[in-house]
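User: Show me an example of a complex going from sequences to structure tokens.

Assistant: Sure. Here are the input components:
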Amino acid sequence: MSILVIGSVAFDAIETPFGKTDKIIGGAAAYISLSSSYFSNNINLVAVVGGDFPKDYIQKIQSVGVNTVGLQIKEDQKSFFWSGKYNYDLNSRETLVTELNVLGDFDPIIPDSYQNCEYLMLGNLAPAVQLSVLERLNHRPKLVVLDTMNFWMDIALDDLKKILAKVDVLTINDEEARQLSGEYQLKKAAQKIMAMGPSFLIIKKGEHGALLFHENRTFFAPALLLDQVFDPTGAGDTFAGGFIGYIAKTGKTDFDTLKTALVYGSTMASFCVEKFGTENLFGLTQEQIQERFNEFKIMVEY
Amino acid sequence: MSILVIGSVAFDAIETPFGKTDKIIGGAAAYISLSSSYFSNNINLVAVVGGDFPKDYIQKIQSVGVNTVGLQIKEDQKSFFWSGKYNYDLNSRETLVTELNVLGDFDPIIPDSYQNCEYLMLGNLAPAVQLSVLERLNHRPKLVVLDTMNFWMDIALDDLKKILAKVDVLTINDEEARQLSGEYQLKKAAQKIMAMGPSFLIIKKGEHGALLFHENRTFFAPALLLDQVFDPTGAGDTFAGGFIGYIAKTGKTDFDTLKTALVYGSTMASFCVEKFGTENLFGLTQEQIQERFNEFKIMVEY
């Protein structure tokens, strides 16, 4: 079934304890699209890049079945650029450069052919932009998933609260959940956040796994223990892509389906972090994905 | 079946964001004994206290079925005393006072009636003291579980390595596993530590759950999300008590049994942190324990 993905497509320059890249392809919507392409062949991208964005990368995205009719190319401008450096434990990072460029006045235009998409993934962007997407759809999608970050809680909390009231699923990390709710205990934090709108809440804890909350129920999926975590950039977006991809594949939005979707999201994220940027999201096989998915089950069964 | 518990029985003074205690009862062996008493009626304590230790507390320990023949009382000395203050997130703490007192020259004497214990829990103490216990037993127990901490890695690493070579299960936290192995990735760290001796390794991650390693297998148990975490003191020891208690109850030491034991350990720890000190470890019912044990299963099932 069809998925509409909105977010950034951008350049990243990344430094980790294991190496350093020049400008490589990044952006929330790139990771989300690539990750969800393993679950759906009807993915529709809305994003904006500058004239400096390599055409062959757009072709690579198209080659995995992503529809790029909604990808605006502003030939006379530059693409969004982010550069960051991870600390030795990969759990924290320092932003070195943020150049908004085309993203500064991003006006997300929804092509008519995208209007009936059933699943909407609002990747991390200014909440006002995310809200405009919802307003421009003729029909509300079956499920709306929102990703955001602490930056918007700091500078655009009112806008964020407006969009929160309109979505079904929110994905944030544990620190952000504490900031947004003002509660330290995640159980209390989750109740307060769900009262703001979303009926499902996902709290991502990186190497410590992810939690899914719904009403008074809680589900937990651990993170796999990998031989090597190389670059955490995009892990959260890759997670979101696997999550909404699996939901779209099944066509169901009940708690049990979302639990399994959480594990598929974690599965995809585990591939992402093994190499730089989006590199490891090309050419995975369904067998590889299934094998790793099964490892999650083995890890918690008793 | 019979369990031999060695460790400190002591006074603690605790300050958390939720309150402050005067001297209350603490010490690794107190938590371990109380916690394991819900699984076994043959628990044999070896520890030392001073003349200042309240006799009625010893009676309370006896009242849950713990044998205190091996509890030395040095009437003219003072009990071990620790005082600490937790930060607002309860994840880190500052030690305010450590008075070794009777623990400074603790000579763990094993009563003859304890000699045939089948399960040995070596609570956190100087590794040389832990080693002397093993040397004084006529028969090696069926399973030896060792708890230790970063302090001994800093000042008594050689002794620690000697005892590590002789135990079956080691329990430490994630930071300690990284320190002991020199590896950041827990999967690699676990392999290095198991090569030092223990065939099972438990890595405790506090609010992020606990991992059990054995050969190339990994099991993970989350931590329950509690309404209120009040005081984390003794959580690791209470965990160890539930863990070895369940093993002693079943009489089995295979990986599957240890997986379930890990969940019972986590169950007991979740009760411990809800009140100050050992307070919540008195008067629990088997139904309460079973109910909470079941919550762990629900949390990871999909």
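The lines above are the inputs; the final block is the predicted structure for all two components together. Chain A is about 35% helix and 25% strand.
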